[in-house]
Structures are given as structure tokens and as C-alpha cells.
Amino acid sequence: MKRIFGLALVLAIAGAALYLAQRHPRKDVVSPNAVLDVTADWQRDLSRAPMELTRLPDSEEVRIGDELAQDYGASRQAHDAQSQMIEKYVTAVGTKVAANTKRKLDYRFHLIADPDFINAFALPGGHVFIGQGLLNQMTTEDELAFVLGHEIEHIDHYHAIERMQIEAQLHNLNLDALAEVTELPMSLWQAGYSKDQEFEADREGLRLAALAGYSPEGAIDIFNRFDELDREYVMHAETPPEELSQVAAEGLEGYFRTHPLPSERLSQARAVIAQDGLDARRAETPLNAEYKTADANPRPLN
Description:
By secondary structure, the chain is mostly helical. Helices cover 62% and strands 5% of the residues. It contains 14 helices and 3 strands. A hairpin with a 3-residue loop joins strand 2 (120-123) and strand 3. The longest helix is centred in the first third of the chain and has 22 residues, at 2-23. The chain is globular, with a radius of gyration of 19 Å.
């Protein structure tokens, strides 16, 4: 028994080393953040099987998501007329993409009207949030459709509610108690999921966007942009054309630390396009003209 336990421990350490090498191949020194990321992934992956056996009913998931969305969105959502107009646009695109999900939930879309928030995230039960900063990095509606599709799939494939259940289990939270549910910080949802779950959301999000009539090149474009941002603001391998605020740059570092490399995601997207025979020649749709006038510093259209 002791030999079996020892062998299992050695295999676990070897697996962790291999995982870390694949996730951060460009760094020679293992940072504390990288170790924490691996630990978090272990916790999620080890806990995922029992979570599937105790899956909450959709009605309960929606209730929890509504409580979280109300708590998180109270101070950060769109309030002025321009931001509300953009949120309506995001909702129109998101609703179109969500039409082909497996789970027929009431998907709702929210704008975080913060130009420094270059991210998007999903909550259990159907809520998707996207930051103004991420929208400002886009030039086409197809990019937006893919990003929303990716977040929708974190809900459709139960990633978001599983994370909630795992965190509740780890911290002994009562999911029936509003006060305890809203103790979970918004940063929990902004961090990446396991590598397999992120790749799954990429694959299925791309397919959702394509089913809604969007060009699969939207995924390619946004991953190319992520690769640029990674090289400019995280690796500092290139000089960025414009300076982001310190808050935005730090947010990008956190994003890329907890997600697969843009180059890996780009390779998978191209493989899915080829495998599924998606029409990469389909013309992309520029972001809505009204949105572009509301964007104070839009990137130039290609």
C-alpha cells in the first residue's frame, strides 16, 4: 500500500511539472502565481466528477446566478445612455449566438463600462459580462460573437456552476444563503478555468458563433489580437502602439497567466475550422456604427 501511495505521489509531482512546462513554456523560473494556478486546477479537476453527480437543477443555478449578477453588477454596469446603447447591442449579438445552446436558459448580457476592464466572464444560470476595454480591442461583430459564445459555453457546459459548487465545498458555504453566496469575489469568475475547459469553451463557442451566421475568422482575429497584447504588455517583446493604464496592464497579466497561450488557442481554432469545414471566406461584419461612435478610442477598422 505504501509503495502504491509513493508511486502515486511521484506520478502526481511529475504530472504537475509537465503541466507547468506546457502552460508556461517561455519562463525558466516557476513563480508563486504559477504554482497557485496549478493547485487551483488540481482542485477543480479532482472535484469535477463528484460535482457532476450532485448537479444542481437549472432553477437553482439560475437563482444563484441572479443573486451574483445583482450583487456584482450594482456598481459596475452601464448607466449612461451611450453605455446602455452598447449593452443593447451586445445583448442582440449574444442572444443570436445563444440560440443554438444545448441548455435553453435565459441568457443575459451585461456591459461593464470600464475601459480598463479587458476581459469577459460568465456566471451560473446565464449571465455574461463583458468589459468596455475588451470591446475596444475589437473591430468586427464576429469577434464579439466568438467571445460571447466562449462565455456562453462556460455556462452551457456547466463550468460556471461546477466552479461555484467546488468553491462552496472548499469554503463550507451554504448555497441557499444569499449572504454566503455573494461572499465569493468577482475575481473568481474572471480567472481562467482548467485548460481543458478553456479549450472546450473555445471550440464550442466558435461553433455557436458560426451557427449564428458569423465568420469563424472572428475567433482567429481575436486570438491574434490576444497574442499581440501578450507580447506587448506581458512579455514586453514588442513596443505597444498605445499605452494602457497600469490597471489594464495588470489585468492582462492575470488573464494570460490563467488562460492557455494565445498561440495554442489559435492553433485549435484553425483545426476546428478545418475539421468542421467552416466557411473562413465568409465576410466579417464591422462593429455596429453606433457602437463605434460611442467608443472614444476605437482601433482602426481593417
